[in-house]
Specification:
single chain, alpha/beta, TIM Barrel, two-stranded antiparallel sheet, 14 helices, 12 strands, binds flavin mononucleotide
Length: 379
Amino acid sequence: MSLAYKIKEQVDTRWKRSRNGHMNALLTLDDFEAAARSVLPVPTFEHFRSGADEEKTLRANREAFNRFTLWPRMLVDVSKRDLSTTVLGERISLPVLVAPTSFHRLAHPEGELATAAGAADGGTIYTVSTLATTALEEIAKVSSAPKWFQLYIDKDRGITRTLVERVAVAGYRALVLTVDVPMLGRRLIDERNRFAPPPDISLPNAGDLDPNTPMTGSRVAAYALQHRDASLTWRDVEWVRSLSSLPLVIKGVLRADDAHRAVESGARAVIVSNHGGRQVDGCAAALDALPEAVEAVAGRAEVLMDGGVRWGTDVFKAIALGARAVLIGRPILWGLAAGGRSGVARVLSLLSDELSRTMALSGCANVSAIDATMVRRAP
Ligand SMILES: Cc1cc2nc3c(=O)[nH]c(=O)nc-3n(C[C@H](O)[C@H](O)[C@H](O)COP(=O)(O)O)c2cc1C
């Protein structure tokens, strides 16, 4: 072995050790947020962190979890716990999926490839965004773990049609149609920062961030103006269904009647979500919307939720209120920024450990034991 190689190996080992040490010091998802804040440029961190307008809904998503208390059951054998569940027939090792978020190469040079590997390490499904910065075929090849693809319907329906064909060929297991973006919510911080990804960051699945598009606020807002379609209705959902035999998931409903309509339109799952507080500010917290949606769906489809999940107890509460599983958005970006693939995997394993402990201390040996009696709205 050459001396140069030996030195490189030593440096790599030291780097790995220090990175691992650094990661082991991160004990909560909030620690990961602080770590991401320290490594990302301010406009990028703020793009990921922020919500729309005054960020009332962003805060409400978190506050909603605090309004529910746990009602633990004692003297149940919890010496062995099974956190696994299924979504659309796929077994996952914990009831937490990776939500679709954009621009992963702004968080880490390996971008979506690292996210896909980290999600597979964590034993769960990664929902790849239309606004991924890596070709969907490349992401699909990272692992054999099941992946879903999140779809935005483009103003140019030809772009959408081609995208849906590519998704099916690449082996994705479900199409997640996001319905809460007829136009982009107003992200004031991005406007103030004139947020614009660098020119080498592209959107290979979505038409591109044309650097010549006139831009008054952020580059993302300019892109949305070009590609999102405010005329979308349930008829377009039918159209997407006609394009593909993949199971359809509708993401971004809060109202019971919309959840019902989603099932009537053929959705196999509904994600109760307000886009992490990034669309209409002042709308209901996702957790508060969950019970009505569960009632409206009445077992005809699976109901998932996202928005503000940061602790194992949050996962537990959402399941007790009827969610099949939850998704996490920002915490995955924090994991990615702080440690690439292993950061993503560690975020998932922290949630898994927390959920496991919550289940043990609450007398639930498996996910199906987390029923409606386990939580109550605080007086
Ligand atoms: C930076 C960022 C980018 C997002 N991009 C998308 C997207 O491309 N498609 C989509 O359906 N949802 C997108 N979302 C919403 C997430 O899928 C998810 O609903 C939300 O992040 C959940 O809230 P949480 O971040 O509190 O976990 C994005 C959210 C964030 C924070």
